[in-house]
Specification:
Blueprint lengths: L3 H4 L27 H12 L2 H9 L7 H29 L3 H4 L1 H4 L5 H33 L10 E2 L2 E2 H19 L2 H29 L16 H18 L1 H5 L2 H4 L5 H34 L6 H5 L5 H34 L6 H14 L2 H6 L3 H27 L26 H18 L5 H4 L2 H17 L8
Antiparallel strand pairs: 1-2
Helix pairs in contact: 2-9, 2-13, 4-10, 4-13, 7-8, 7-15, 7-16, 7-18, 8-15, 8-16, 9-13, 9-15, 10-18, 15-16, 18-19, 18-21, 19-21
Length: about 475
């Protein structure tokens, strides 16, 4: 249950410039995200073309199939622990991520981590939309082969059919977000489970072509020495966390709609260590089978679908991947920037308006160009970790160690100088110093040239350094309980 003695006595300042209907605290009437919904939420986080590509891409670091699965499982366990910390806090306070961040960074300072998260989400939103469009193209070409003439010429790296597919899915997602969080919840409940249909069918088909056997000791990268094997193992584990660093930080956007701590814990348990591990295992099995059949690992399940000769199977599989990826993208990469951008000017930018801005920016970043870069996954994920790690560490230390899980919710919306989260003109200098120092350190680690193992450490370096600095700079300077 929520701490109503802390959350509700003063109410939310209705005339404050820091509030709009989308950013207000959750009430008992809209706390409808139960265990099943949160389970599906985490399923959507795992069940995407991008997630498959990430898991398979880790094989290129030189680990064997079983070593890669074990390393990813370790990362999944760390992700599980972090999701419980953020989820319980989000459910207890009952506000979206950018408002929750006001407690640590100040009522205006919270815009800094919020916009960092929005930037990450915009990139991933564009990339996932592009990946979904590739599945739609496969489907269209099987149904209407004559459309191949639309793939001859390209504009800014995308064919006419590519643009048509991308913009159709782009518009569908914008339509979903325009109906609010209740429709987002329904999209998540549908998208999470449905992709298992495509993955299981794909696994059975490729496993049969591989003669119903694969070598879990196979690898796609060069063999590693003992020391490099350990380094790669640690790197893969932390890259798993970095891959989900963005959704982890803004998990309060969803957890706040849960009616109880029990629902959070149960939903996280089924959705992360159980389901996410299962998805990792089936992704690695499919990739090892493709290595045996084609002599190389196919990092894109849509590319694998294109090898199937049966049109009915191809159409069903492509449709499943396209539809599921749309649902996944809305949940993971549309909700957060919509809230984050709205938080910059709540009186003028609603949740829906923030979504429109996100959608437009997702085109401008040319996501298909980003996805073409072979080093993009490792280095971009390192960059995500460098930015999101410190934010995670600062939020956790502030809420659990400095404020001892106590929040005066009304003050999160108060512009009054005497407000608890006003700090210095609305900014908490200690949190910002911790963010800058830890962020710079994390970025330096992430950009170490020709060293993917070091790059993978950007998330833990950022999280530990950010949280540690926040504690050292703030200890003794604020009440333990408010």
């Amino acid at each position: 249950m929520r701490d109503t003695q802390v959350r509700e006595p003063e109410g939310t300042p209705e005339r404050s410039a820091l509030v709009n209907p989308d950013l207000t605290p959750t009430t008992s009437e809209n706390a409808v995200w139960r265990t099943w919904d949160l389970f599906c939420l985490w399923m959507t986080s795992a069940h995407s073309i991008g997630s498959y590509g990430f898991a398979v891409g880790m094989l290129a670091l030189g680990l064997t199939g079983w070593q890669t699965m074990l390393a990813l499982f370790v990362g999944v366990l760390m992700l599980w622990g972090g999701s419980n910390l953020i989820g319980v806090a989000g459910q207890r306070v009952g506000v979206p991520f950018p408002v929750f961040a006001r407690g640590a960074f100040g009522i205006f300072g919270a815009n800094i981590p919020a916009l960092l998260r929005a930037l990450v989400a915009v990139f991933w939103y564009g990339i996932q939309t592009y990946l979904a469009s590739t599945a739609l193209i496969v489907l269209l070409l099987r149904v209407a082969p004559g459309l191949k003439s639309l793939t001859v010429h390209s504009f800014i790296g995308l064919s006419m059919l590519g643009w048509m597919s991308f913009l159709v899915l782009w518009a569908v997602q914008l339509l979903i977000i325009s109906y609010g969080m209740n429709v987002v919840r329904k999209a998540s409940d549908f998208a999470g489970p449905v992709v298992w249909i495509g993955m299981l069918a794909l696994a059975i088909w490729i496993f049969a072509k591989a003669g119903w056997s694969i070598d879990f000791g196979a690898r796609s990268g060069a063999p590693l020495s003992g020391g490099k094997t350990v380094a790669a193992f640690v790197g893969v584990a932390f890259l798993m966390v970095a891959f989900m660093a963005g959704p982890l930080v803004n998990y309060a956007d969803f957890a706040r709609f849960s009616p109880s701590k029990k629902a959070i814990v149960r939903g996280n348990a089924w959705g992360i260590p159980v389901n996410e591990t299962a998805f990792v295992v089936i992704s690695i099995i499919i990739s090892l089978a493709t290595l045996k059949v084609y002599g190389k690992v196919l990092s894109d399940p849509v590319e694998l679908v294109a090898h199937i000769h049966d049109n009915t199977i191809v159409i069903i599989a492509a449709a499943v991947f396209a539809i599921a990826t749309v649902g996944i993208n809305v949940v993971l990469n549309f909700v957060s920037p919509s809230y984050d951008i709205s938080n910059t000017a709540p009186k003028y930018i609603s949740f829906r308006t923030g979504g429109v801005i996100t959608a437009v920016l997702s085109i401008l970043v040319l996501p298909w160009k980003l996805w073409e870069n072979q080093n993009f996954i490792v280095y971009f994920l390192g960059g995500v970790g460098a930015l999101m790690g410190p934010v995670f560490g600062i939020l956790i230390v502030d809420y659990y160690l400095l404020r001892r899980q106590r929040t005066v919710v009304a003050d999160l919306y108060s512009e009054a100088p005497q407000g608890l989260y006003h700090y210095t003109r609305g900014f908490n200098p200690r949190a910002l110093i911790a963010l800058v120092i830890a962020g710079v350190a994390g970025v330096l680690v992430a950009l170490v040239p020709h060293s993917q193992y070091v790059t993978a450490l950007s998330w833990p370096v950022g999280a530990l350094l950010g949280g540690g600095l926040m504690y050292v700079l703030s200890a003794g300077r604020r009440p333990a309980a408010e």
